[in-house]
Model the fold of this input.
Amino acid sequence: MEKIVDQEAAFQARIDAGEKIEPKDWMPEKYRKTHIRQISQHAHSEIVGMLPEGNWITRTPTLRRKVGLLAKVQDEAGHGLYLYSAAETLGISRDELFHQLHIGKAKYSSIFNYPTMTWADIGAIGWLVDGAAIINQVMLTRTSFGPYARAMVRICKEESFHQRQGYEIMLTLCEGTPEQKAMAQDALNRWWWPSLMMFGPRDAESPNTEQSVKWKIKRKTNDELRQQFIDITIPQAEILGITVPDPDLKWNEERQHYDFGEIDWDEFWQVVKGNGPCNKERLQARNDAWNNGAWVRNAARAHAEKRAEKERTAEAS
Ligand SMILES: [Fe+2]
Ligand SMILES: [Fe+2]
Done:
């Protein structure tokens, strides 16, 4: 028992000193489990996040927009793959990670359980959803687990490009016809509150925060990050000339922050529990992709076996 206490203290001292923890280093079981859960949830979010946007690839307004959207969706696939690889270094297989997603056991970001109804939603997602993701993720570039921190450096660079691309879509619509501007406003109305929910429950209801801060997974609390996002985003909405759907939003001179209205926490928990507008559809799409890809996996396996067999016979003769 004493030995484990010493080991844990030495482990924490390394983190406090700013050292990175690498896959083969000793780590407490809770650290390993927490990281498998967090990194795989993050990976699943990147992969499921391709679905709402993929919905518009065949319907972009111009060829230029199609090129941009295709590249963005491919970036998200890349983010998912780096993150699955990072999770695998902790001793879990990719098949197991996929399985947890497919049976609905693993979580992914609830924001992707909302539908993309119009082209403006693609702008709003880039601007708000990638924007919120960056605020959550920049602190992860300095997190204690080496493979996760290194993956996040590149991911954050790409996310910030996505955010600008989304904002540019919004700007174009807002400078367009009254109908286009109304479409941008409608997208903001639908995506604003779900984007604020991306920062998670209020601090008072977020029991893991303290441990996450110790391991440098978190450097700021959910409420602090949410406030930061609102403070950054409101001036951007002003430039667009559209308004967030919150009658209580007001600059607070004393706090030097925006005050804002209450989030619908009932909706938040409903979507987390699987009852959002698209939860079933998203899981079905991932399951279909897995099942429809079975023949590719089987063919690759058969090919590898044949090759190995050939090599064995060549060696024997
Ligand atoms: Fe991403
Ligand atoms: Fe992104």
